[in-house]
Amino acid sequence: QSFIEFKTNSLTSTITDEEAKAYFDANPNRFRGAQFEGLKENIKNFLSQQQLSERLKSWFELLKRKYKVQNYLLES
């Protein structure tokens, strides 16, 4: 569990304002009438969590393929 927490921390990166704005602009139906500045931190948190999830999934897939590792926390 500690190693997974360590790996999770090492896979996180900071989402820039530009990345958040690009997401905001690319999803106008999702943010109808809302102002970017009011949602910027929420979007950055969402994108950060999404990015972390994708990176962890890729890392676990690599471990499964290369070392035949199983994640009992996710599979139970």
Mean pLDDT: 87
Shape: elongated
Q: How many strands?
A: 0
Radius of gyration: 16 Å
Terminal CA distance reads 15 Å
List unreliable stretches of 5+ residues: none
Order of helices and strands: HHHH
Q: What amount of the residues lies in strands?
A: under 5%
Continuous helix count = 4
Label the structural class: mainly alpha
Biggest beta sheet summary: none
Q: What would you say this structure looks like, in words?
A:
By secondary structure, this protein is an all-alpha fold. It contains 4 helices and no strands. The chain has helices spanning 2-11, 17-26, 36-67, 72-75. Helix 2 (17-26) packs across helix 3 (36-67). The longest helix has 32 residues, at 36-67. The radius of gyration is 16 Å and the shape is elongated. The relative contact order is 0.14.
Keyword list:
single chain; 76 residues; mainly alpha; 4 helices; elongated
Write the SSE topology.
Layout: H1 2-11, H2 17-26, H3 36-67, H4 72-75
Q: Can you summarize this structure?
A:
The protein is mainly alpha-helical and 76 residues long. The protein has helices at residues 2-11, 17-26, 36-67, 72-75. Helix content is 74%, strand content 0%.
